[in-house]
Amino acid sequence: MPIRINTKMPVIHRLAAENIFVITEKRAATQDIRELQIAILNIMPNKEDTELQLLRLLSNTPLQVRVTFLRLDSHQYKNTPEEYLSQFYKPFSSVKERRFDGLIITGAPVENLPFEQVDYWQELTEIMDWSTTHVTSTVHICWAAQAGLFYHYGIEKHPLPEKLSGIYRHTTLYRDEILTRGFNDRFFAPHSRYTGVDTADVAANQDLTILAEADEAGVYLIEDKKAHRVFVCGHPEYSRMTLDNEYRRDLSKGLNPKLPVHYYRDDDPAKDPVFQWKAHAYLLFSNWLNYSVYQVTPYELNEIGGGKE
What we know:
CATH topology: Rossmann fold
Structural class: alpha/beta
Shape: globular
Distance between the termini: 31 Å
CATH architecture: 3-Layer(aba) Sandwich
Helix content: 25-40%
Largest sheet: 11 strands, mixed
Number of helices: 9
Mean pLDDT: 91
Number of strands: 11
Strand content: 15-25%
CATH superfamily: Class I glutamine amidotransferase (GATase) domain
């Protein structure tokens, strides 16, 4: 799929090296189609790595997608220069009147804080409210999944005894659902978090369906069909070396982290990790783009949400 983003973004060169097709503004203007408008609220500290990870996954369909990266108005970014944000990210306040076919909200390293103590919690809840009338389908990843489950359904998160980090084997519970179409009965996906939600709390909500879970990691993929919301409690977007980078970062901070489980060959951090979740990640996001977005979104963007403001 051709990805349409600002062609001055540094990530362009890495995408080109991977043979991922990025379409120019000039060429896009000559195509007689209605591209999908996807917004990404990227609240991960390392912006470029997360951009690359998500753009890879959005590239695996024949649909043309225009990606708009969003930033929070209420948060002071410490890890990304203001010049970079100003050039490549739009403040949420500038797109509030727009509609999008899809929205992705990333995780954030704030799990150990109560939701209400996160400095941008009020704005995030405003975005989640906005998404119900201005977006066809929204994907919430990791901490954002916990935040969405809490805000929309009152499901509390809880601290884990220790950090959950590694590659876990999951079971597909509903093979014929649109998001899990083509999934194997068992598949692998990364997790990296200090908190979680109880399976029983999710299962007790009649609006939510658990589509996949893991014995060691708990619920993984949750859907609310009525509200067009998707919650991914892990990190399928992670690249091969992301958990390695996190592990070595924590080592350097003196946190004495445990090895990510089922990750390094022979559990030896001197050896390359086994990349065993890539196919699942691509399939999950292509299913979402095709079935949860493209097949159901109106042709006229202003009709999303019934045209309600």
